Amino acid sequence: MAASMDLETSPLALPFPQMPAIAGVTLRVARAGYKTWDRADLTYAELTEGTALAGVFTRNVCCSSEVELGREQVNLGRARALVVNAGNSNAFTGYRGREAVEQIMAQVAHHLDCDPSDVLVSSTGVIGVPLPKDKAKEGIAAVLEADDASWKEAALTIGTTDTFAKGVTTSAMVGGTRVTLNGIIKGSGMIAPDMATMLGYIFTDAAVDPAFLQHCLSAANEGTFNCITVDSDTSTSDTVLAFATGKAGNALISSFEDAGADAFMAALHDMCRQLAQLVVRDGEGAQKFIAVNVTGAVSDESARRVGLAVANSPLVKTAIAGGDANWGRVVMAVGKAGEPADRDRLGIAFGGVWAARNGLPLDDYDEGPVARHLEGREIDITVDLGLGDGRASVWTCDLTHGYISINADYRS
């Protein structure tokens, strides 16, 4: 199955892993024809009865009906199915967009003999075009009769400008029972999450109380999906959902006092970090993956904001694209972040080589090793504020001509 826009695969792409089946989850894909592309664009995940649900969503006030309904559904804590439409975000489409989502929910609910509120819907793509109800209806009918799909097929089908399928699998021991977590995600542009990211879906066979699952996902989100940026734009549709089928047979996890709760939380956090970084690796036009590590801040949250100011700076990102060790641009970005910083305590390093410490360029600074570091695909920037113990890592990519080309041509 081809990438969504037949774009050249990102040089930062990672191979799709071998992902085991998750008991209680059935995947299918079909072509609804939301755009002219010759590929599947509708993903369906059927979930066993009793599946727990958690989610985080965009704070963009122009969000889609899918997001509005999803927030209500997450409060119920249960799910029987997920539908993902690719090619049309159905955002800023008024009552017509809402009707399309409710039609999908009702159609799937009738098939499963469940309540429509148990059917989650996400859509991604062009903003401002109502999701065509006729195509959605035919697409749902087709996907309900389709053969089972693989995790890679599902990951490809939810994509838009993505150039490679993104998936992660991991596991944890919970009270003597091994539980499995699989995650797929899409995202390449319009990436600067404000509580979540693009579209991401995590499935586990662990038995987890919905309230605890929500707590774990929200906590993991802060240090992962909320720490990535491609272009500083927050989507109208950003969603991350977690589904726990309970089929592994472990004792229900409902608090950190339960056996294996810490292990489950660690596995979930690791999965969210890996999924978030995969999105950055597929940043539109990206040639380099950039980690911005901030230390010495007054708090972890302050460190994150400083890191995002650096990661979102077009001047920093274009300097990295050109292999220019222009640490003055990093200083500029730190200074505009609006967070506590002292010019005379600031230190900047590239690839572990300090260019400046205590507000001054180092007399023995050798730009040669830094230049060689910037020739690579994996770039490391360290900012030491020298004020406290706060620290954070933020991930981004460089800004190239490819980003302009993709977004200038996206609607065509």
Explain briefly what this protein structure is:
This protein is of the alpha+beta class. It is 32% helix and 26% strand.
Structure write-up:
This protein is α+β, with helices and mostly antiparallel strands and 412 residues long. It is built from eleven helices and 14 strands. The strands form two sheets. Strands 1, 2, 3, 4, 5, 6, 7 and 8 form an eight-stranded mixed β-sheet that branches. It has a six-stranded mixed β-sheet with strand order 12-11-10-13-9-14. The chain is globular. It starts with 24 loop residues before the first strand and ends with a helix. The mean pLDDT is 93.
Q: How much helical structure, as a percent, in the residues?
A: 25-40%
The end-to-end span amounts to: 20 Å
**SS summary, helix count:** 11
What is the overall shape? Answer: globular
Tags for this model:
412 residues; 6-stranded mixed β-sheet; 11 helices; 26% strand
What is the topological layout?
Blueprint: E1 25-30, E2 42-57, H1 65-76, E3 78-88, H2 94-112, E4 119-126, H3 133-144, H4 151-157, E5 166-174, E6 177-186, E7 199-204, H5 210-222, E8 239-244, H6 261-281, E9 289-297, H7 300-311, H8 314-321, H9 327-336, E10 347-350, E11 353-357, E12 360-361, H10 367-374, E13 378-384, E14 390-397, H11 401-408
Parallel strand pairs: 3-4, 7-8, 9-13
Antiparallel strand pairs: 1-2, 2-3, 2-8, 5-6, 6-7, 9-14, 10-11, 10-13, 11-12
Helix pairs in contact: 2-3, 5-6, 7-9
